[in-house]
Amino acid sequence: MEKKRTEGGDPFKVEVMGPTGPVPVQVVDNGDGTYAVTYHPEDAGRHDIAVTLEGKPIKGSTFRVDVQAGAWAGKTIMESFSFVVKAHDKRGKPLTVGGAKITSSVAKPNGQQCNQTKVDDQRNGSYLITFKAQEPGLYKVSTKIDGKDIVGSPFDQKIAK
Known about the structure:
This protein is mainly β. The chain has no helices and 14 strands. The relative contact order is 0.14.
């Protein structure tokens, strides 16, 4: 039976080469014969990982990792907004059929009308309103039935950068 190691201290060296050059690597000795390696690739594509011990490649080194591009919150934008209008009759009873004369308009931060506002009758008393946010700022959204504002309309929708 193989004896389990209880100490570290091995002189491992790890190098990661990404598609645009070297990637910084952190190697942590766990003190039990295992090592944690951390790196944060900046670019998608092939990354070659070379691991050496006392200057000699370990078995299987160099390793290849294909990094896929991932979503990044700091660069991801909200392009389209939508909301649902649920129509009711004058007594407050929800409608279960479509056909109401619903219009919606969206004023961009510069005051011009958004020409990409869409009203989609769901044929069940609800209407899906969608508009594209073309720039950051405060949008004024107005939704009407037969030319009269519905409850909560108009309202402001802030689009952040």
